[in-house]
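look at this record:
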Amino acid sequence: MHVLSFTPRRGAQDPDPFPALVEALGGLGLRREPERTAGSDALALADRAGTALAAVLRASELGSWSIGWGIGAVPDPLPTPTRAITGPAVEAAARAVHAARTTSQVPLAIRAADPRQQDTAADAEAVLRLVGWMIATRNRGQWRVVHALREQPDATQVQLAEHLGITQQSVSRALKTSGWREESAAHPLLERLVTMVDLTSRA
């Protein structure tokens, strides 16, 4: 199981970033949607690595959260309130979000509940932080193009330009400077690493 723990970043300008988090993560297929826990903190659960990764990336785009990703076991069946869930994965997520909160540049961290998987989790975290750094450095114009391409992955640059009402040259420049294609190429590696942690933790 993948447990995602969210805590507001220091100096975040949104006084209550939780509604935006719920909206950003809606429709991803999470096992449990974000739920407030203590204070402004929140917790969410995902069954699959790809779903958890999508949630972490969407939440990172908001710029309001430190995010901890814990991988391991949780009790089955799950209790009704998400905040009541316990288990090794929840404890790993708590350690991860603490590490993320104390990281100044890219507030993301991954922890494995199984100590045998610490090295693989550290490898996954290194890739995730590189992706997170690319997310944090994009400007508004680059995000417009990235969001359009994410919604229409097979669209040509000309089609994206027509959709956005900008020139094809602007689309091309935004894609090159945003690092979107490089980031996208790292997603499958990151997903495989965290899947490995999850599967081997069950053994």
Summary: Strands lie at 2-8, 32-36, 42-46, 65-71, 108-112.
